[in-house]
Every structure is written in C-alpha cells, then in structure tokens.
Design goal:
Helices cover 50% and strands 8% of the residues. By secondary structure, it is mainly α. α1 packs across α7, α5 packs across α6 and α5 runs antiparallel to α10.
Length: 218
C-alpha cells in the first residue's frame, strides 16, 4: 500500500487527533450502529464518559469528526472525515491484535489508542516508514519507544537495527493514517502541533504474533 507524501509531523498530528479522549469509542459506535438520536446520546455514551457528554460531542464537532444532523432530529452522525476513520481504526486494531499490543486481551479501543500512541511519535513514524527493513545505526533516543514496543531489534551482526514482524506489519495502518491525514489536511492542521507519545505509558514488549482475525469491537 502506497503512503502519501506527508511528513512525520503531519502523521503525528493526525494520530494525536484520532487518539484524543473518547474519540475511538464514539467514532466506532457511530460507525457500527449509525446515527444516534439526540435523546439517546447520554444513555449510549455515559457509561464510558465521566464528564458531560455534550461537551465531549461538541469537541468532536469542532474537530470535524461528527456533526448534529439538523434536518433529522439533531441526530449525531459522522462527517465524511469521521466515516473514513472506521477503516483506519480497524487496521490499527488488527495490527495490535496480531501482535498482542498492548496486551493479549486488550479491548478494541485500547488496541487502537495504543497503536495511535506509537504513531504520535514522529521518530517512530520515520522508522516504520523507512524503505527496507535494515535501519542501520540509530541513536538510543531515536529507538527508545520502538524498542520497548517490539518494533525493532538488533541485526544479527549487532551493528545496527532492523524492523521486526511487528514493525513491518505497522506499515499498513501507518499508510492508512497518512492517507487520512493527506485527505483531511485542514483538520490535521487545525488540530495543533503533534506531541510525542507519553513516556509515562508502559510499553510492553511484543512477545509473539498471532493470526489476526476479524476485529470484534467492544
């Protein structure tokens, strides 16, 4: 899959926008079940949103991912940009499930957000997008997150680094994130500067791959 010519910073900003609080859960709910009537929003979203639901939904409206359909009883629905995230999230979840990231039994939203946290770091994006698998010599700082996530490993001669199966597998979801960032450049630009992945988050090692099956959202 070809990756559009977007910078690591643009991908980082797009991943930050996609991974903000409750975004994955809300977008996935609408993508799976369709528009939600105004009177049902609190019942649908309150179980996992701890502060006023409408504040969260207004924030997603401002980001251009959802909208209130004034022609149809103010139902909450996805924008074109929001609908396009369905395939992106599915790809990220399949990768995370195949490589048990961040844990074997993580739910759909946790898998997607954890994968997005990796792509929020421009250095990780650069490593995964590099042509081939042999990365050559790299600094410890540049490799820190990728090593902890199991995306890279030392080469056989110990003189450089190469992408693991998990690192190579992340290229497909990365390409989809980049395509979305390219198609929605204005939304990404408005989202503000990209931020590196939070170093306080534990990043478990990838221990083994499993066969990726259909994603069951939960």
């Amino acid at each position: 899959m070809s990756t559009p010519a977007v910078s690591e910073t643009q991908v980082s900003r797009a991943a930050t926008l996609m991974g903000r609080n409750h975004t994955v859960r809300i977008i996935s709910e609408l993508d799976d079940n369709g528009p939600i009537p105004q009177g049902a929003m609190s019942a649908v979203f309150s179980p996992f949103i701890l502060y006023p639901v409408h504040n969260v939904l207004r924030a997603l409206c401002t980001r251009g991912l959802v909208t209130f359909d004034k022609q149809n009883e103010h139902r909450l629905t996805l924008t074109e940009a929001g609908r396009a995230l369905g395939d992106v999230f599915d790809s990220l979840a399949r990768w995370a499930r195949a490589h048990q990231y961040p844990a074997e039994h993580a739910d759909f939203a946790t898998r997607v957000r954890s994968a997005l946290a990796l792509l929020r770091d421009p250095r990780t994006v650069s490593l995964v997008a590099a042509p081939g698998s042999d990365l050559g010599p790299r600094s410890a700082d540049e490799l820190d997150l990728a090593v902890r996530a199991g995306l890279v490993a030392p080469t056989a001669d110990g003189r450089g680094w190469s992408l693991t199966d998990a690192g190579r597998g992340l290229r497909e979801p990365l390409a989809l994130v980049a395509q979305w960032a390219h198609a929605n450049a204005e939304l990404v630009r408005r989202s503000g500067p990209g931020r590196p992945a939070m170093r306080t988050l534990p990043v478990p090692a990838v221990t083994r791959a499993t066969t990726a099956g259909p994603v069951k959202r939960s």
